[in-house]
Amino acid sequence: INTTSHFWTIREFLPHMLEQKDGHIVTIASMAARAGVPMCTDYCASKFGAFGLAEALKAELYLLGAQNIHNTTVCPVHVNTNMVTSLSSRLDYKNRFGGILPIETVCDDIIDGILRNHQFVYCPSYMGAIADIGQCMIPSKAVPMLFKFMDTGFFEKK
């Protein structure tokens, strides 16, 4: 669902947007699309697929000259959804960076991002800088140590 739902939605609505020369596509990815989260490999892969779809679509729309069809990719950290609450009942949950976000906060950030035509919405907003720094400056072998240092994510209960 995390990836294929975007394919089906775009397939349904993009032709009309191209006809009208106007529209806005919102992709719900995750910070898990920017950095793998321990114990959530399948989730990370599906969100990375959604993130990659959005990036490729932005490039395609640019080549098609569809400058009035905007694209916003949303990357929140942990949101208070059934998935997060069910994981936290099975796994130890830790997060030094804002805890579990209320759904309403994320929705407000998404709407603000759409109205401002932001290409990316990070919830909380400082996570974008953390993701960019992490991908550019931290060697891949150091990422597991970074997760341990940040004390963030889901870990097996002991």
Question: What features would you describe in this structure?
Answer:
By secondary structure, the chain is α/β, with parallel strands linked by helices. 51% of the residues lie in helices and 16% in strands. The chain is built from six helices and five strands, in the order αβαβαβαβααβ. It has helices at 4-20, 41-63, 82-90, 103-115, 127-137, 143-150, and strands at residues 23-28, 69-76, 91-94, 120-123, 153-156. The protein has a three-stranded parallel sheet with strand order 1-2-4. The protein has a two-stranded antiparallel sheet with strand order 3-5. Helix 2 links the parallel strand 1 and strand 2. The radius of gyration is 17 Å and the shape is globular. The relative contact order is 0.16.
Q: What strand line-up does the widest sheet have?
A: 1-2-4
Average per-residue pLDDT, rounded, comes to 82
What is the radius of gyration computed over CA atoms, rounded to a whole number of angstroms? 17 Å
Terminal CA distance: 31 Å
Order of helices and strands: HEHEHEHEHHE
The helicity comes to: 40-55%
| Count of individual beta strands | 5
Please work out how many helical segments DSSP would assign: 6
Uncertain residue segments: none
β-strand percent reads 15-25%
What general outline do the C-alpha atoms trace? Answer: globular
Describe the largest sheet.
Answer: 3 strands, parallel
SS class:
alpha/beta
